[in-house]
Amino acid sequence: QQQVKQSPQSLIVQKGGISIINCAYENTAFDYFPWYQQFPGKGPALLIAIRPDVSEKKEGRFTISFNKSAKQFSLHIMDSQPGDSATYFCAASIPNTNAGKSTFGDGTTLTVKP
Amino acid sequence: ETGVTQSPTHLIKTRGQQVTLRCSSQSGHNTVSWYQQALGQGPQFIFQYYREEENGRGNFPPRFSGLQFPNYSSELNVNALELDDSALYLCASSFQGSYEQYFGPGTRLTVT
Questions:
Q1: How does pLDDT run across A47-83, given as a tens digit for each residue?
Q2: Residues of A in contact with B55 (CB under 8 A)
Q3: What's the rounded Cα separation, in Å, for the pair B25 and B36?
Q4: Mean of the pLDDT values across residues A20-39?
Q5: Helix or strand or coil: residue B19?
Q6: Are A8 and A90 within 8 A, CB to CB?
Q7: Per-residue pLDDT tens for B68-92?
Q8: How far apart are the C-alpha atoms of A15 and B24, rounded to whole Å?
Q9: Which residues are bridge partners to A20 per DSSP?
Q10: Do B43 and A44 touch (CB under 8 A)?
């Protein structure tokens, strides 16, 4: 059972455009929702994260929008740049004393064309 | 501050063999989690170690085992390797109680 579903699988955006990646989750016990960026040959790097008590979080060009009732959250990359070309993963974690155990989506490969 | 390091970078093994992968956690982090990332998929949680004990496990068989050492570094051991074990194995370190985890570059394991 896949608990975190991510879409689209791949995305092509022109430089300066907005990239939007969506995730839906099933388990209402999740309470931490990070996004990771992964370049080829590298491990995932934490990009931005949100807790369910807020509906939006912005850090620079990256924004997470969170809809608790719909059990969905999305990543928006404003003014997309060729350097943003990477694979993006959403994830979700259940709260307990053993933080770090995350369920990941299957990833979105973003290509930003110059 | 030293980031998460993993060794080796690449490894080729034969079906039925055993393998040990190593991870050094980021300075100050006391918890290590291991993930398996198959090609084209997201990382899947294998298990987590805290205070040198397994502290949660995903849906992986017992032939996947691990260790954590007093300096918080960790090993992942896989016995009786199967072709489906071919994947990128990622180690992530965190501080117990924090959700933020930091990944190493991974070990690419190929089983032939």
A1: 999 998 999 999 999 999 999 999 999 999 999 999 9
A2: 98
A3: 17
A4: 94
A5: strand
A6: no
A7: 999 999 999 999 999 999 999 999 9
A8: 38
A9: A76
A10: yes
Contact B101 A105 (CB under 8 A): no
Helices (H), B1-112: none
DSSP reduced 3-state for A38: strand
| pLDDT over threshold 60, residue A42 | yes
Question: Is residue A53 exposed (0-12), middle (13-18) or buried (19+ Cβ within 10 Å)?
Answer: exposed
> By C-alpha distance, which of B110, B103, B43, B36 is closest to B66?
B36
Contacts of A49 in chain B (CB under 8 A): 99-100
C-alpha count within 13 angstroms, C-beta hemisphere, residue A8:
9
CA distances from B16 to A104, B22, B106 (A): 29, 20, 22
In one letter, which amino acid is A37?
Q
Which of A100, A103, A106 is opposite residue B92, by nearest beta carbon? A100
